[in-house]
Amino acid sequence: MRATDWDIKKLAILRALRDRGTVTATAQALLMTPSAVSQQLTNLARQLGVPLLEAHGRRVRLTDAAHLVLRHAEAVFAQLERADAELDAYLQGESGEVRVAAFSTAVPALVVPAVRALRTAHPGIAVRVREAEAAEAYELLSAGDVDLALSLAAHAPTARDPKFTRVPLLADPLDVALPAGHPLAGAAGPRLAELAGEHWIFGGSGPWSEITRAACEAAGFVPEQAHSAAGWTAILAMVEAGMGIALVPRMAAAGREGVVMCALGEDRPVRHVVAAVRSGSEEAPAVSRVLEALRDAATER
C-alpha cells in the first residue's frame, strides 16, 4: 500500500458513514445514491487492502481497520483545512465571508455585537448568520455548509473530537425570573434551593428542559413543572402574570416591567458557551478575526 492509495474523497465518505451511522443517511448527506456510497467504499477497501465494513444485522459498521484509517485521515483533513486557510490568506488577506451557525440567544448577545465590531475594524469580512441549535449546527459545520458554530458546551462535540477545534467563549450565569410581587424579588443572592416549592416554567423537552432540571436537581430538588414553553417571550409573560418562575440565562434576559431578574447565590448555575470550527480552519484570517470578535463580545458582557 502506498500513500497514493489514500483517496481523500473516498475517505470523506468513510468519515461521513461513521458520523451518520447508515449508508442511506450518508448518501442523503452527501447527495449521492446508496449504491454509489457502497461502491466508493468498496473501491477504497480494495485500494487500501483492508476490510472497512462488516455486516451488523441489516446494517453495516466500520471495522477496526476503518477506525484506524480514520484516525490518520483526521490529521490529513485538518492539514487540508490549514492549507485552505493559508491559500485564503494569500489570495484575500483579511477579507472574505464567514458563515456562522448559532443558537437563538447567542445571535443578539454575541454574534450581532461581533458583526458590528467587524464592520468597523475589518470591513472586508462579511458574516452570514444562520440560527441553528447544536445538533444541526455541527452537522452544517461537518458538511462544510458553515465555517463556525456556536453552542452550549454541554451539547458540543468533546474536545477529543479531532474534526473540530473548540474555543471557550463565555460562562453565562442563570438567573431566576420572578414576578414583581414575589417575596424573594428583592432578596440578595437567594439560594436556588429556597425556590424548591415554586411552580416552574420550562420546555417539555430539549436543551433548556435538561438544563433547568439538572440545575434544580443539583440544588437538591426536582422542579414541579406548572407550564411548558420554549420561547423566552412566552416564558417571561407567564412569569409576569404570576403563573410561575423560571431559570433564564443572563444572555437571554430582556427587560419586562412585571418581572424581576434575581441573581442567585452560591449555588448559582451557569451554562458554558463555546465556538467550534473545523480543525485547521481557525488559521484562516477571516475565521480568526470572527473568533476574536466573538471573544471580545463575550468579554464585554
Would you give an account of this structure?
It is a single chain. The strands form three sheets. Strands 3, 4, 5, 6, 9, 10 and 11 form a seven-stranded mixed sheet that branches. Strands 1-2 form a two-stranded antiparallel sheet. The chain has nine helices and eleven strands. With about 300 residues, it is of the alpha/beta class. It is globular.
Q: How are the SSEs placed, and which strands pair?
A:
Layout: H1 8-20, H2 23-30, H3 34-48, E1 53-56, E2 59-62, H4 64-92, E3 96-102, H5 106-121, E4 125-131, H6 134-143, E5 148-152, E6 164-179, E7 199-201, H7 207-218, E8 224-227, H8 232-240, E9 246-249, E10 259-262, E11 270-278, H9 285-299
Parallel strand pairs: 3-4, 3-5, 7-8
Antiparallel strand pairs: 1-2, 5-11, 6-9, 6-10, 6-11
CA-based gyration radius: 23 Å
Strand content: 15-25%
Report the total helices.
Answer: 9
Give the end-to-end Cα distance, rounded to a whole number of Å. 54 Å
Structural class: alpha/beta
* Overall pLDDT: 89
The main sheet comes to:
7 strands, mixed
Low-confidence stretches: none
- β-strand number: 11
Q: Per the principal axes of the C-alpha atoms, what is the gross shape? A: globular
Helical content (DSSP H or I, runs of 4+): 40-55%
Domain HTH lysR-type: 6-63
Keywords: DNA-binding, Transcription, Transcription regulation
Protein name: LysR family transcriptional regulator
Pfam families: HTH_1, LysR_substrate
